Amino acid sequence: MRVLIVDDERRLAAALQRGLEAEGFAVDVAHDGITGLRQATRSPYDVVVLDIMLPGLNGYKVCSMLRAGGCRSGILMLTAKDGEWDEAEALDTGADDFLSKPFSYVVLVARLRALARRLGERQPRVVRLGGLTVDLGARTCLRSGDQIRLTAREFAVLEHLALHAGDVVSKRDILDAVWDEHYDGDANVVEVHVSALRRKIDAPYGRAAVQTVRGVGYRLAVDGG
Hints:
This protein folds into two domains: 2-119, Response regulator (Rossmann fold); 126-220, Winged helix-like DNA-binding domain superfamily/Winged helix DNA-binding domain (Arc Repressor Mutant, subunit A, Orthogonal Bundle), CATH 1.10.10.10. Helices cover 40% and strands 22% of the residues. The protein is built from eight helices and twelve strands.
């Protein structure tokens, strides 16, 4: 899942980014309304976590402008404690959900997952490819009935491949979907994670679900290899 956090409380935003990335989310951060609006407009985020009190443009205006521009990302707005008027205006301007500050990190993650599920109902939540089953909701992977233990990042790579099963996905596409936009490390990190997936879901079973298309990218076989 790709998430944009728009909050001018830098320590809070950084803490959320670290926590969500550890869960396998790809997370970008903006600290003012103008930057947040620009990033949300030019990149395909699953969910935007949007604070109300922002410099430049407040959260209400950002939300309203995103919806007016046709943005289909989920928007979770952060409102003041006991701010029922904030909550009402958040929904009126196009937010899908709200969470009052201060909030529980566990609740935030649950809200993000629930919101992504609601907005992604058009996508399959369980992808079955022969003997390989990828449950996107439960974030589990089964091969021939055996549960495969994957890291959060490994699962995120597999999830992206599963949602495009049969299609060739470039290394750049995987980086954009699984790592944040400021990642400037070695692009071969994708190869490392793909190799780990092969060791776990293919090699022990004599299968080849994760295929390399030389010079182009990777493909997850529709028959599970």
